[in-house]
Every structure is written in C-alpha cells, then in structure tokens.
Amino acid sequence: MSDKKNITWEVDDSLGILTLNNPPENYLINPEFVSIDQLKSWLKENIKGLIITGAGRHFSGGADLNNLMELAKNENDLFTNLSKGNDLLNYIDDLEIPVVAAISGVCFGGGLEIALSCDIRICTERSMFAFPEINHDLIPGIGGVARLERLTGKKTAMDILFSGDTINARKALELKIVDYVIPKYGFLEFSKNYLNKLVENRPIKVINMLMRSLKNSRELEFTEAVKRDVKMFCELAIDEAKKLKNE
Amino acid sequence: MAKYKTLLWQEQKKIGHLVLNRPPANAMTTEFFLELNDLSTNIIPNSNVKAVIVYGDGRHFSSGADLDELITTIYNHTRFDNNGNISNYPDSIQNNLNSFLAFDKWNIPVIAAIQGVCIGAAFELTLFCHFRLCTENAVLGLPESSYNLMPGIGGVQKIIKMIPKAKSLELVIKGNNFSAADGSDYGIIDRIIPKKKLLSAAEKLAEIAGIDYRKFNKKEYLIEMDKFVGEKNQLNDRG
Q1: Which of A120, A225, A227 sits opposite B166 (nearest CB)?
Q2: Touching check for A150 and chain B: CB below 8 Å?
Q3: Measured between CA atoms, how close is A68 to chain B, in angstroms?
C-alpha cells in the first residue's frame, strides 16, 4: 500500500484499488486528485482492472470550494488546474482495462465526474448523487456534463444539471447513472469480486483490445470501427496460430 | 436459383428464407462464408424479396465460426513486412464482414429466428439483423474471449449500441453464454416465441414489416406480430 497526499493505492491480485482519502467527505483538494504519471506507474504491474473508491462512508463530496475560490483569484491557475483534472479523467476514461467506481455515501460534483469517467458504477443503497454546481452559479468543470449526457440522454442530463437535485441510488439505477445497487456492507468486496470475475483467465491483450474496440465505437464511424475490430481479431488469431504451431 | 452447399436460399411469397444448412450445428466454415458473400452481395440485392428471415436448419441456429479453420486461414494468408509486422490481412476476412454489412444495404427488414445454440460469429450475424426472435431454449453469447480472441465481425460495435457499457463489457470480456430470457432483459432479443410458432411468427413479421419498412416503426411491427402469435404466448412484451 502506498500513500500519496489524499490518495491510497493498493494492489489486490491483478486489481488496482485507488482510494480517495480525505475523510470524512473526501473533498478533492485539486481536480487532478492524482497525477497521470503516478497512476501510470502504479498501473504498470500487470493490473487487469482498476477500482476507484472513497475512504470511509463516502465516495467524494466533490471539489474543495474554498481551495477552488482561492485558485479562482488567478484565472490561469484555475484553468491549468481544471485542465489537469480534465486530462486525468480522460486518461481514466481511455484506459484499456475495465474501471469500476465503487460508490458509497455522497458522490457529488467532482466526485460524480470521477465516477462517470469509469466504465462501470457500483453503489450502495444509501448512495446519493448530484451536480450541485448550479447552486453556486457554476457548472461541472471536468467533463461531467458530456459524460452524463452520454449515459442518460439530453433530457435527464438537463434535469440533473439545472436542478442540482440529489438523486438516490434507486433513481440513479433507473436513470442508468449506476449499473448495480447493492447493500451497504461489503460493497467494496462485491466490486472486487465483480471485477475479478470479469478479468480472471482473460489475457491482458484480449482485455486491452476489447476496451479499445469499445472506445472506437464512440470515436469512429461504425464501418471504420468494425474494420479495426477485424484487424485486432486477426492479430489475436495469429498469436493463437503461433501457439498451436509451437505445441 | 443459386445452389449452395452450406446454406439454402428460397424465395416464398416475396419473403427470402436464408437457412444455415450444415448440420448438426450449422458451423460457419470458410465455404459457408464464401457462399454467404455471394448471396449477400450478388443474389439478394438483385432479388425482389421484401424481407429476409434467417434461421438454422434443425435444432440449432449455429455454433459460430469454425475456429481452427479460421485461425489457419488468417495465419496462412496474412502478409508480413520485412520487420515481421503485419502488412496485409486476408481478403476473405474482410469479405466475411462485408456479407454482414450488406444486411443494412438491402433496405429491407432482416429477421433472425433463433433456436438452440447461437454463439460467436452466429450471434454476431443476428446482431446485424433488424429483429431477433428467439425460442425459450436458445443459448446465446460471444465466447470468443475464452479462446483468447474477440468478436471479429462487428459484434462488439453492434452490442455497445444496444445495451449499457457495463453489460457490454461483461458479455464480451467474460464471454459467458446467456439465455433467451436474459437476452430479452438486456434488450437484445425482441421477442421470445414458442418453438412451434417461431417460423410462422417470423414469416408474419416479415410480411408486416416488409410492406413498408421503416426502421423507426420497429415496435409497431412487433406489436402487430404479437396479435398473430396470440396473447397467451407473449412470454415477453417489453416492446
């Protein structure tokens, strides 16, 4: 286990667990809550799946508003910091391994933006979600708007963003913001088991290619994305053919 | 009428019947893909059918591609450059994909009527169809990852457009088979139909949707078909 400022990193078998660790609400001091380089070096070691979770009762209450207002005194500082946060969430979103957000308690603002950059969201029955930015005359600043819209469609996204209302776990499931709702106790265990069962016995190359294929689905035109799939399939088939020849 | 060895093509009352016909499990061999390519790109576009129904002869839809044959073909026909990197993939593989892509170019509804096993490339084929009807006993799935492969004919791209990312990831990475009921819950299967009525329901749907096919009327066509199948038999009515 290694501790950086407000972040804990653990490896459990082939899974990496990144914990937002600034209790009780795990407010984010900076939008870039961990540096990309740091995360990259942690992920080097045969990690086939990543879990992002919060220490204690909550996932994250979002940005530390006092710090944000301090930064806002200098326009450049604020922009640089948000850009770094944005880059980090894009990096997480683009990872070629499955990423699970394991959520309990509050998941607000920047916290929700982090969760939305993950592939799969698992939360407890008591979890709560919101983009309260509107109450401060702000908007989500690190990709949350686009990611929410992608998930729920425009109408629901507008309801959530314009109202700032808190959504409970059941409603979040209904709106497709989360994928699984489970009892409070053992939610992290559940998430680890879920992700472990997903990736166990699967070679990292196959996982990477499937993740790339899913990413292509939203970045490329359909026929181009399918062509890339054909190429990746051939590459894997050739690997298998070589194995058969060496047996 | 074209003569094929691994599939049958029949035109009845302006409805095309495309039957995978290589018992016992209608495996999709190289020969099958060649014949499908001819049918998809030469015969069907020049026929005057108003809809196509795809199904398997016998108890199963199809067990998917013949993997040994496919892997050998790819290995033998892929060209490498001087550094040992892949420079060209075999044309046949692109042709397999073109056969499936053609389903959208005919501008007529294509209906998969699935019973028994329908996995791998066979399941991918059904994902290119516009309707998927299925018997209760069907076994569906994309098990490619368990052979250290991935769906190679567009299955990933199709499925991610139909269902949430988390479920897509599970289906393609874990690669577990799933039942007709699960497929219906996920929103992949349009209707579960009693075995005895599967083909007649598909014919009815072909008739209804084929008259004036518009993709956005999909729900209405299915509701019309339900009336024919009978209320008692609507095991699934998610719309």
Answers
A1: A120
A2: no
A3: 33
pLDDT tens-digit profile of B45-98?
Answer: 999 999 999 999 999 999 999 999 999 999 999 888 888 777 888 888 889 999
Partner-chain contact A119 B75, CB within 8 Å: no
Of the given ranges (A174-183, B126-135, B185-194, B213-222), which has the lowest mean pLDDT? B213-222
Give the tens place of pLDDT for each residue, A14-28.
999 999 999 999 999
Chain B partners of A213 at a C-beta cutoff of 8 Å?
150, 156-157
Interface of B with A (CB under 8 A): 70-72, 74-75, 78, 86, 89-90, 93-94, 97, 101, 145-154, 156-157, 160-161, 164-170, 172-174
SS (H, E, C) chain B: CCCCCCEEEEEECCEEEEEECCCCCCCECHHHHHHHHHHHHHHHHHCCCCEEEEEECCCCCECCECHHHHHHHHHHHCEECCCCCEEECCHHHHHHHHHHHHHHCCCCCEEEEECCEEECHHHHHHHCCCEEEECCCCEEECHHHHHCCCCCCCHHHHHHHHCCHHHHHHHHHHCCCEEHHHHHHHCCCCEECCHHHHHHHHHHHHHHHHHCCCHHHHHHHHHHHHHHHCHHHCCCCCC
Structural domains of chain B sorted by starting position, each given as residue range(s) with its CATH number in brackets? 7-79+86-233 (3.90.226.10)
Overall pTM > 0.95: no
- Going by C-alpha positions, the residue among B80, B154, B198, B173 that lies closest to residue A233 is B154
